[in-house]
Amino acid sequence: MNSKVINGLKYLLFLLLGIFLLWLSFRQLDLAEVWADILKANYIWMFIALVFAIFSHIFRALRWNLLINSMGYQTKLMTTFYAVMVGYMANTAVPRMGEFMRCGMLARKGKIPFNALIGSVISERVFDLLVLLILLFGVVVFQWDLAGGFVTRMIGPLIESVMNNFNLLLIVSITGVLSIAAILALALMFKEHIKGLPGYGKTREIILGLIAGAKTIKNVKQKGLFLLYTFLIWLFYAMMIYLPFFMLPETAHLDFMSAVTFLVIGSLGIVAPVPGGIGAYHFIGKATLVELYGISGTIAGSFVAITHAGQTLLNVGVGAIGYFLLTFTNRKKQQNEQN
Questions:
Q1: Can you state the percent helix, strand and coil of the chain, rounding each to 5?
Q2: 78-96: per-residue pLDDT in tens?
Q3: Nearest-angstrom CA–CA distance, 226 and 291
Q4: CB 3.0-4.6 Å disulfide test: which of 162, 236, 283, 291 passes with 56?
Q5: What is the DSSP string of 223-234?
């Protein structure tokens, strides 16, 4: 089957999954009440939260610049920022496309190898995943009386399924390891023959570029600054949740730790392979507010609808501006092009 058809079917499947989760989130709610809550919300708080969102993206661009600089390339902050926003805009339409889009835009604008940029993004994402896991651990440990039961209910069925199929998983794991070992052994045995294959040089160049990009955190000279930017990114992410609590009287009593908890659990919805996190974010975010904090389903539904819509509009709006500016303006030679 044609790869484009397969990708189209995968996209349609995940889109339908998102719509299904969206339906699950709102199916038992009175949509008229949800709409009434949306209309009565104090959107000043959402606006301020979006300002924090922009600053979080700026700090992400600054942090990415540190990784790019560690590879010997230079780029302007605004160029990197617009590339980041183009990536967020792309993720709204096609999951995981954003990483390729932002690297493609910056590679073209800044004359930086695409493969190296992809490697740096992989390194960045792995580091952010580590931060997320640390936050999740902290939320569970320090709020076990609140979050422990919820986490247990969420992952309990998964653990039970793993234990029930342990033998099968063990066989699959061993088979996978042996297959990788066999491939590596064959590659070493026929190394000289492989070098003569068409496309070997280009493939090797791509792999080396990815490896160089993935090593960027290790090579960053200003590691303290890298950690500071990371802290500010996640702090402002939490502020993006905390400030909108004040939009609705029913959520105004929730504290900053509640925002961190929502951020950690809600991130699972954002990273889900559905366009823009639609449905997944609503389902997980609503469940968090209802199960952990006793917020009514209607209010929780209104809150996740407003925050998701606000973040989506920001990403699409600023991303579109960034795409226009990077594509159609300032065609002067970049510093890396002159090297």
A1: 85, 0, 15
A2: 999 999 999 999 888 887 7
A3: 36
A4: 236
A5: HHHHHHHHHHHH
Decide if 244 contacts 46 (C-beta within 8 A). Answer: yes
Name which of 322, 320, 127 is nearest 234 in CA terms: 127
Dist CA 98 CA 281 (whole Å): 18
> pLDDT tens digits, residue range 227-283?
999 999 999 999 999 999 999 999 999 999 999 989 988 777 666 667 777 888 888
Distance between CA atoms of 84 and 101, rounded to whole angstroms? 9
Phi then psi for 157, rounded to 5 degrees? -60, -35
Residue 163, CA distances (Å) to 50, 150, 154, 160, 330 in order: 43, 20, 16, 5, 58
- Please name the residues in contact with 106: beta carbons below 8 A apart, sequence gap of 6 or more: 75, 79, 80, 83, 112, 117
- Number of residues that this document lists for the chain: 339
Q: How many Å apart are CA 282 and CA 23, to the nearest integer? A: 10
pLDDT at 338: 44
Three-class secondary structure of residue 271 per DSSP: coil
How far, in Å, CA of 33 to CA of 94, rounded? 31
Name residue, tokens 């919805």: 269
CA distance 319 to 174: 44
Report the range of poorest mean pLDDT among 65-69, 77-81, 98-102, 197-201: 197-201
The two tokens of residue 281 are 């974010």
